[in-house]
């Protein structure tokens, strides 16, 4: 636990320093940060994640894939050839699976820090919540899906500009790491419309139906997926005793409720961008609600939890000064307790932490 606490302190302090030591805060309308301090925060994130050993539910699986298939030719004809190519190129450089975890940690954390630096209205808060809302720890599982999620996040400007042609190219690239990235095609069209639109109401009704009538929903869903690579998940998803912790559902829902209470004010303060960010987070919350039925749906939240890092700092600007202070302190303390509870409870096998310095 000490490693995780030290990492949180380092990331928070140096993110704050990156923000406050800059004299000229803006350059051509863009927020400036001290890159040295920001790099130190990033380095801490990378090292803790990249040097992990037997940490996370997927560690053994990724190690086995790397060791067993690394020396085989790249399968360019496969749908997820991007991940296959990354795996096998890294294997040709270094046969130690720990090298794979270090490089993917660099890719994921660098991408997320770039994303936060570009779009957050408060970088230190976003970096703090990156760890305490558990997103950082979840990146240590689902590696290839988080690579896909980061690629999509770096293409977020195309969503803001409503440039579908360029965004679909980003989706295609992301899908070479995880085919589920294709869900972002319908998400794009939902996200650029008002949350009260008929399309978003329809999506909400679908999620409500799926939550209440879960087993019929699973049966219908797999009629469409029976010839796909996901068909074998039907029996697993029918297990109703394997849902996500209800606390995670509540934690995902609370920011949505707070933001919704001041959504009009958010649009006045931050423009249409805030509505699109809210929509992304709302979809993530919906999938987390389904994860209460079966934790597999939590995998889909990996495409949306990154946008919560932008939502959190906006929330604490939406109320009056006293309320903002109470909400800010409440969120900072609350999310710290939340992440600590999940770590100590063994969620996703992130704790206890072990490391391996033998890379080369």
UniProtKB/TrEMBL annotation:
One family name in Pfam for this protein: EpsG
InterPro entries the record matches: EpsG-like
Domain of life according to the entry: Bacteria
Keywords assigned by UniProt, alphabetized: Membrane, Transmembrane, Transmembrane helix
Transmembrane residue ranges: 6-22, 34-53, 99-116, 136-156, 168-191, 203-225, 245-262, 274-294, 300-319, 326-351
Protein name, entry field: Capsular polysaccharide biosynthesis protein
Annotated source species: Clostridium disporicum
């Amino acid at each position: 636990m000490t490693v995780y606490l030290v990492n949180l302190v380092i990331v928070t302090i140096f993110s704050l320093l990156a923000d406050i030591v800059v004299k000229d805060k803006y350059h051509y309308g863009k927020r400036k940060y001290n890159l040295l301090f920001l790099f130190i925060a990033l380095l801490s994130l990378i090292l803790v994640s990249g040097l992990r050993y037997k940490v996370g539910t997927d560690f053994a699986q990724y190690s086995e894939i790397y060791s067993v298939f690394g020396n085989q030719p790249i399968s360019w004809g496969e749908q997820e050839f991007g991940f296959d190519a990354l795996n096998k190129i890294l294997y040709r450089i270094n046969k130690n699976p720990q090298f794979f975890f270090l490089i993917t940690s660099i890719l994921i954390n660098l991408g997320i820090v770039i994303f936060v630096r570009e779009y957050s209205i408060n970088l230190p808060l976003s970096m703090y919540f990156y760890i305490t809302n558990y997103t950082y720890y979840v990146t240590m599982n689902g590696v290839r899906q988080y690579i896909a999620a980061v690629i999509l996040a770096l293409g977020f400007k195309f969503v803001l500009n409503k440039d579908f042609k360029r965004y679909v190219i980003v989706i295609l690239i992301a899908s070479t790491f995880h085919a589920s990235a294709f869900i972002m095609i319908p998400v794009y069209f939902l996200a650029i419309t008002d949350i009260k639109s008929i399309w978003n109401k329809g999506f909400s009704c679908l999620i409500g139906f799926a939550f209440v009538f879960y087993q019929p929903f699973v049966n219908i869903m797999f009629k469409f997926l029976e010839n796909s690579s996901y068909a074998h998940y039907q029996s697993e998803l029918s297990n109703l005793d394997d849902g996500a912790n209800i606390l995670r559902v509540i934690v995902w829902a609370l920011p949505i409720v707070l933001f919704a209470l001041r959504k009009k004010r958010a649009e006045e303060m931050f423009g249409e961008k805030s509505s699109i960010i809210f929509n992304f987070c709302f979809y993530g919350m919906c999938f987390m609600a389904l994860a209460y039925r079966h934790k597999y749906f939590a995998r889909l939240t990996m495409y949306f939890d990154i946008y919560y890092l932008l939502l959190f700092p906006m929330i604490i600007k939406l109320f009056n000064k006293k309320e903002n202070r109470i909400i800010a302190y409440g969120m900072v303390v609350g999310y710290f307790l939340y992440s600590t509870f999940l770590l100590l409870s063994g969620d996703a096998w992130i704790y206890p932490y072990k490391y391996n310095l033998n890379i080369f």
